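User: Reviewer 2 asked us to show a designed sequence for the structure in our supplementary figure. I'm pasting the structure tokens here. Could you produce the per-position amino acids so we can include them in the response letter?
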């Protein structure tokens, strides 16, 4: 890292822009398991290609990952998140497992605090590919959001209380309610990262750097402008070479790559939500031809814009291509 001093607190403009981005991103949450496990048990839910999460309602368990010698203890109120679908094992035993990728449940009991065992809610977040790369791409293999620690986590604890209450019900709409409540987890994960001021290369890192943030806000406000390294560096009040280096440190990718991904984020919205033509979207993204735009869109999204619209948007790309 270079020795320059950076202001890590988000500016109000950065917070406002991030709030708008989070409002518009395309994602969904799905809870696929809710239960209370007793005796000897172990679960590995990796392999979906999505962001996996486990919530410990009450009780406790151990988290193991390949390559980690020391397990992590998870207690009541902890949320463990796997941004990159890492292989893992959560279970009753502290001992390191011989293999991963297994599911072994010996006994389940009804969800109830008076019953023995560990109560879990397990699910995944399916996130827009381009935004997932920018928000979560440089995060570690797992994160633990400890809802029981700190006065600032009152809102998270309230959400978990609602999830726990709904998980124990067998009423009409319970599954759908759990999924919608779980939607909010993504935003609390992002808030936790921002409040902890962790060095996370990507969109959060770019927003946290006061000078790089100016360039990112300019791109966000006008993605179709004829942006170059020179005019972006000028906005950031940096030399061209210093801007390139600092941008890469903050965002984890070169400025022009970020610009392309960000333009495709807008393009996806315009194609999916506004039903705009490919040529119109190309011009709004700063491309002079539909062919050049289509090539860039396919490189970022995995399919061309026409095929994207035909298969019904971002949530169906994974099933169609199997590459995201």
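Assistant: Here is a per-position design you can include in the supplement:
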């Amino acid at each position: 890292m270079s020795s320059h001093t950076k202001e890590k607190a988000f500016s109000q403009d950065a917070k406002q822009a991030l709030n708008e981005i989070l409002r518009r991103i395309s994602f969904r949450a799905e809870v696929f398991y809710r239960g209370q496990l007793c005796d000897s048990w172990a679960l590995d839910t990796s392999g979906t290609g999505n962001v996996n999460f486990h919530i410990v309602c009450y009780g406790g368990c151990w988290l193991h990952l390949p390559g980690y010698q020391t397990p992590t203890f998870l207690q009541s109120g902890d949320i463990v998140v796997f941004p990159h679908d890492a292989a893992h094992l959560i279970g009753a035993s502290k001992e390191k497992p011989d293999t991963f990728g297994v599911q072994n449940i010996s006994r389940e009991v009804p969800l109830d605090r008076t019953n023995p065992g560990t109560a879990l809610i397990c699910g995944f977040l399916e996130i827009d590919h381009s935004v997932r790369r920018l928000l979560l791409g440089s995060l570690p293999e797992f994160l633990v959001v400890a809802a029981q620690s700190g006065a600032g986590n009152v809102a998270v604890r309230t959400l978990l209380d609602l999830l726990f209450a709904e998980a124990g019900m067998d009423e009409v709409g319970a599954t759908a309610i759990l999924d919608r409540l779980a939607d909010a987890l993504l935003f609390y994960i992002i808030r936790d990262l921002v409040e902890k001021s962790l060095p996370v290369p990507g969109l959060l890192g770019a927003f946290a750097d006061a000078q790089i943030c100016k360039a990112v806000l300019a791109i966000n406000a006008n993605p179709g402008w004829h942006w170059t390294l020179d005019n972006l560096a000028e906005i950031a009040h940096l030399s061209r070479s210093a801007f390139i280096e600092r941008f890469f440190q903050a965002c984890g990718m070169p400025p022009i790559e970020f610009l392309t991904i960000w333009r495709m984020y807008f393009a996806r919205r315009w194609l999916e939500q506004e039903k705009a033509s490919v040529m119109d979207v190309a011009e709004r993204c700063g491309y002079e031809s539909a062919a050049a735009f289509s090539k860039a869109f396919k490189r970022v999204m995995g399919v061309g814009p026409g095929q994207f619209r035909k298969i019904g948007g971002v949530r169906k790309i994974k099933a169609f291509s199997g590459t995201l």
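For the response letter, you might also mention the following. DSSP finds 13 helices and nine strands in the chain. The first helix runs from residue 12 to 24.
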